[in-house]
Amino acid sequence: MKLVEVFLSFLYLFAKKDKRFLYYKFLSKNLNLERDEIIETQEKNIKNLVHHAYYNTNYYKKLFDDNNISPEDVKTKDDLNKIPVLTKQIIRTNINNLMSKDRFGRKLMKVTSGGSSGNQTTIFYSPYYEHMSRASWMRNNSMIGWMPTDKSAWIWGSPIEHVKYEKSFVTRLGILLNRRIILNAFKYSEKDFIEWHLRLLKFKPKIVYGYASIINEFSTFLLKNNLKLPSVKIVVTTAEKLTNRKIIEEAFDCKVYDQYGCREVVAVGIEVDENEMVLTDDVVILNLNKKNEFLITPLYSFGFPLINYKNGDVGEISSDYKEAVRGPFNLMKLKIGRITDNFLNQKNQKVSTSAISTYLSTLDLKIIQHQIIQKNYSEFVINYISDKNTNKNDYFNKVAFTLEKHFGNNLEIKFNNVSQIPVEKSGKKLMFKRTFNIN
According to CATH, what is the number of the domain 1-346? Predict the structure, then answer.
């Protein structure tokens, strides 16, 4: 282990009581296991999580009893299908009963789903689940050569831009210690790309990480202006569907890898070769229902168990793990990723809707689902589905504040309470939609 990694591990453990680096070393050992050993580990973790959920949460105790399920009946990945699906609506109406009554239920951290599918809900992380999630994310990255101490540049909707973080010394120190810079993707134009290029030349990151659509636009700018970034060896895209891979590879002269996860389950899959994404099922189980919708079970979600959680994405799973390039894992295919339009402001700067989604995820909107449509520079239509817990004025104010922060005051915002979000001709729901182009 590098000295920098030792230092970071010590700092996280003793300054923050964060065990992510210890868990990272633990999970990394699984990369050397055979597939049958992974299955053995997986089934042990399934049993532990199911027993924890049944004996320590009111929700799962009642769910199992009402459906005549014994914890002893659930031993394998396929056995998880015996347990009814956990939806975001169920979570909203049973949130207290999903919290465990044992030690894992102490000091729970509130987390709001990103809402890029338009369907937002609140869950809770125990410190154990949080540390394990970050560890599995680092371990998955290591499979493509992104090590925890590598310099990285994030093209991201930076949390520093959020009001409660923008003056946080701790947040800024954490970014510095993790050898990371953040290129602000909230508002950007080609003029910003010039600055980004200069910052990257100076910082010399090994990794570029961020929203797929914006990395693609930045890549097009680099190619058009014949600009190079020789330090970059790996590009990792996330949060959106990866398109135009070849453009990004040509611009950075390196391989591009896609990454899959969500705010509730940080690390689900990592692409280890082009169109070859492995499902790291030593830490998370991915089953499908009849509609090929993802049912996710993070095996370390102690404190607030998520079993057969339907997060809104759709895909496929390969049954032949031997096709994978690295690691004893199955392959997965994300059929429908997160589809979105970026918005425009008066200066014709693009505003990343993935970044807006990230921003909104820090707020508790208490709605079932919504769609934000930009009609022109200052006119927005919001279609939303409310439930009995929705405080409409609070929701209106939070959304209006967010839009005004990025598009200025005097906006015309129309809210429509609807029964369902319309589906596009493509068959997909577009949760952020722009209906006009640059004049």
Answer: 3.40.50.12780
